[in-house]
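Chapter summary example.
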Amino acid sequence: MLLDTASLYFRAFYGVKDTTPAPDGTPVNAVRGLLDMIARLLRARHPGALVACMDAGWRPAFRVAAIGSYKLHRANPDGSEQMPDALAVQLPLIVRVLAAAGVRMAAADGYEADDVIGTLCVGSRVAVEVVTGDRDLFQLIDDEAGVRVLYIARGVANLEVIDEAAVSQRYGIPAAGYAAFAALRGDASDGLPGVPGVGEKTAAALVRSFGTVEAMLAAIDAGHGGFPAGSRLKLVAARDYLEAVMPVVRVASDAPVVAVGPATQWFVPHGSVRRRGADGPRESSGVLAADGNLPVRPADPVALAELDARLDLGSSLGRLSAALAARPG
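The structure predicted for these 329 residues follows.
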């Protein structure tokens, strides 16, 4: 199980009322809510391993260089991400609590959690469930490889298991075409304009006909047909955008993933990991974060007890500890 951790703690922050702060007044609703979400997921899905994937670059330079508007509306003047102070103060606490509890975390310098997830999916030799509220990760779904998404848009208690059939039913496209679909349609939440005049239906029709944005542009250059009515001219007019957008919407599969500690120190040395590619397994530089094995007991019980005493995590920490200690059946 790979967690899109930011997706979970944002939902926890906005979904759990901040009625009981820590004894020193620090808000802890996102911490408690995240612990409860993870505990519920573990009890419901019984994963053999768990990795909490983190953002080490919420607005990566390579994506901004390609599309300057990428997440620009969510950036502060200093380049940091806009978020309530009451949530920002909880982020280091989340890392410390997860580390003390023994939950493995992973990040990649200059990459988003999506890219960490994409890289670990490609590197996995076992089935993977990706927990997220972000539809962009639908592009990773692969029935043959055993990768599916647990979509939590309606909450962890009402998660949807999304496989290739579900993507096809929702959008009329294969999961592998979701990145091209998103590029064409655009995504206001990420500052991606899309192709003017191309909505979901036309985007889906283009993906069904051509598969990739690159194939669409090649067909235009070759004078081929097969474009939905009126769409060719719209693609021609948006060519600069289309030539730049795919590295932005496509989840990376080769991010330099490392494990993360409570002070965001990289503590797994660089090495080599076998990853599955289009031409079969291959060697690739980088690091697989960790085995993600569920801890039977906390990694640092003393630190965890101190955090509990300081933050008064109470039943939320108890539920996580019990769920982690229960081995898959």
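To summarize the output: Confidence is low (pLDDT under 50) at residues 263-290.
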